[in-house]
Design goal:
The chain has helices spanning 2-13, 31-38, 46-59, 72-81, 86-93, 98-101, 111-119, 146-158, 173-192; strands at residues 22-25, 133-138, 163-168. With 201 residues, it is mainly alpha-helical. The protein has 2 domains: 2-30 and 122-192, Alpha/Beta hydrolase fold, catalytic domain (Rossmann fold); 31-119, 434 Repressor (Amino-terminal Domain) (Orthogonal Bundle), CATH 1.10.260. A 3-stranded parallel sheet has the order 1-2-3, with helices on both faces. α8 links the parallel β2 and β3 (163-168). α3 (46-59) crosses α5. The protein is globular and about 55 Å long. The model has no long low-confidence stretch (mean pLDDT 95).
């Protein structure tokens, strides 16, 4: 997610930087759609979603006061996971749910919360990357829906971005990350060898 946002923001935020390649897989391009899809059901990737929500609360404490909605278990997990990395988040957040951690679920109906989610979703950001870009995603991903990144990729292509977009017929988020990594690595290596970036929309 961070890499994809860096690519999208670079032309206006840091146009002086020369990016030879940007790669990103399994991108949550629509946080609102992702949150609604997860709902209150347990999920193997819940730890990642929970960490993203806590990160957004830090930036938008008034619009997204997640901590005020958490029960005792949720508050404990927030403190325990607040500064950890992906492996830790995945392991300790696996098969948890918002329903298990919430004292109240009213935030899911908050227009302010939904506005924050949309503002932080690539799907609704008009900027287009100018650096060579490689994206991959599972078409049946149950954590980060495919249609939102596919729509974003098609918009980039229509705007002339140098994009390679690779869908995989895989449903599980982390499996797609592993399967797609070798080709993503080779994409970066080819840019460093000076080979021209292909376009595959």
């Amino acid at each position: 997610m961070a890499s994809a946002w860096a690519a999208a923001l670079a032309p206006t935020y840091a146009p002086e930087l020369k990016l030879d390649a940007v790669v990103a897989g399994g991108i949550p391009a629509d946080l609102e759609q992702m949150a609604l899809g997860l709902g209150f059901n347990p999920h193997p990737g819940f730890g990642l979603a929970f960490a993203a929500a806590i990160g957004l609360e830090r930036e938008y404490p008034e619009q997204l006061p997640i901590s005020s909605q958490l029960n005792e278990t949720g508050l404990w997990l927030r403190e325990w996971m607040s500064n950890e990395c992906r492996r830790f988040l995945l392991f300790h957040g696996a098969f948890r749910s918002a329903g298990q951690l919430a004292a109240s679920t009213s935030l899911m109906a908050s227009s302010g919360a939904h506005q924050v989610l949309r503002e932080n979703s690539l799907r609704y950001f008009e900027g287009v990357p100018t650096a060579p870009l490689y994206l991959w995603h599972g078409t049946l991903d149950g954590l980060t829906p495919f249609d939102s990144i596919a729509e974003t990729a098609h918009r980039y292509c229509a705007a002339g971005a140098r994009l390679t977009f690779v869908p995989y017929e895989i449903s599980e988020h982390m499996t797609t990350a592993v399967v797609g990594f070798p080709d993503a690595y080779e994409y970066v290596a080819a840019r460093f060898r000076g080979e021209p970036a292909p376009t595959r929309c």
